[in-house]
């Protein structure tokens, strides 16, 4: 993969955001049936088992105590982020939840500074601020919501911190280990945590809840939103700086709004369009950072 240019990995990250953006429509029905921890547990355990079968030879070749440990850390961070996001959503509006989650764009450059000792540049900061302003317009402004910090908002901010930590950790670990094997163990750890947490704190809905439609949606979440999208992200983060990757990942909010318009008939306001333009501008500013300088 050494000969693949970095722009290919950036395009792959955008592909992952398209999948995640459209998965919001799928999640609407599933979260109404399955409690959050059970949903995460079943989604990621199935994804981990599927990826393990597909990559069994690769896993046997590259498996080590370090890979398992790193995968467990990634699983804990990602499960924590998703769980806090879900708790926050119960106590605040979807728009505020989406906006505060996306503030990881601003957190990643500083988290990467702490871990890798690479000071964020002016491009990093400006790009992140521009993108977050765009996310505000896409997620919140057009609906007339107001932002105040309460329990739900605090939980969602915790989710943003966990997502930022996950992105930085993947970037760091994927440079030392095989990214796809890391993803296998991340899924298994995340799925196990979901099942354990769900069994301890939530009520299992029962077999009758798993209609053919719900099973199909769960398969989409496990195969496309997990195996494909996370596989793309984790491999790409070994080749794209996390400060730039976080900006590319912010496009998820644009594709979520687009999927709601295409599949659910939800309106797109002028503010949302302006927000999408700002997010794209932030991505372009981040891209400018690594353009080669003239000798």
Report helical residue fraction.
over 70%
Measured distance between first and last alpha carbons? 27 Å
CA-based shape: globular
Q: Radius of gyration from the CA trace?
A: 19 Å
Q: Main β-sheet, in a few words?
A: none
Counted by DSSP, the helix tally is 13
* Parts with pLDDT < 50 across at least 5 consecutive residues: none
> In terms of structural class, how would the helical and strand content be classed?
mainly alpha
Order of helices and strands: HHHHHHHHHHHHH
Q: What proportion strand?
A: under 5%
Q: What's the total number of strands? A: 0
Average pLDDT over all residues:
84
Can you give keywords for this protein?
13 helices, globular, mainly alpha, 295 residues, single chain
Topology:
Layout (H helix, E strand, L loop, with lengths): L5 H25 L5 H19 L1 H7 L2 H26 L3 H8 L2 H13 L5 H18 L11 H23 L5 H23 L10 H25 L5 H8 L2 H13 L5 H20 L6
Helix pairs in contact: 1-10, 1-12, 2-9, 2-10, 4-8, 4-9, 5-7, 5-8, 6-8, 6-11, 7-13, 9-10, 11-13
Would you give an account of this structure?
The protein is mostly helical. Helix content is about 75%, strand content about 0%. Helix 2 (about 35-55) packs across helix 10. The longest helix has 26 residues, at about 65-90. The protein starts with 5 loop residues before the first helix and ends in a 6-residue tail after the last helix. The model has no long low-confidence stretch (mean pLDDT about 85).
């Amino acid at each position: 993969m050494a000969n693949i240019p970095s722009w290919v990995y950036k395009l792959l990250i955008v592909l992952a955001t398209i999948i995640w953006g459209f998965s919001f429509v799928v999640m609407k029905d599933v979260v109404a049936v399955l409690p959050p921890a059970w949903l995460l547990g079943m989604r990621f355990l199935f994804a981990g088992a599927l990826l393990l079968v597909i990559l069994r030879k690769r896993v046997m070749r590259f498996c080590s105590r370090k890979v398992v440990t790193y995968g467990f850390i990634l699983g804990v961070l990602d499960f924590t982020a998703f769980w806090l996001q879900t708790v926050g959503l119960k106590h605040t509006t979807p728009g505020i939840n989406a906006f505060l989650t996306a503030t990881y764009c601003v957190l990643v450059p500083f988290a990467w500074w702490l871990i890798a000792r690479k000071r964020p540049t002016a491009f990093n900061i400006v790009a992140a601020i521009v993108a977050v302003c765009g996310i505000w317009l896409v997620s919140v402004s057009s609906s007339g919501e107001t932002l105040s910090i309460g329990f739900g908002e605090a939980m969602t901010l915790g989710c943003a911190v966990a997502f930022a930590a996950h992105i930085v950790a993947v970037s760091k670990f994927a440079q030392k280990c095989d990214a796809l094997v890391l993803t296998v163990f991340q899924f298994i750890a995340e799925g196990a945590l979901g099942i354990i947490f769900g069994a301890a704190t939530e009520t299992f809905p029962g077999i009758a809840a798993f209609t053919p439609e719900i099973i199909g949606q769960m398969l989409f979440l496990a195969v496309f939103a997990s195996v494909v999208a996370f596989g793309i992200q984790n491999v790409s983060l070994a080749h794209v700086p996390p400060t730039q990757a976080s900006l590319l990942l912010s496009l998820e909010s644009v594709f979520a709004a687009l999927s709601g318009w295409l599949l659910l008939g939800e309106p797109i306001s002028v503010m949302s369009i302006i927000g999408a333009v700002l997010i794209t501008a932030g991505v372009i500013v981040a891209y400018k950072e690594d353009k080669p300088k003239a000798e």
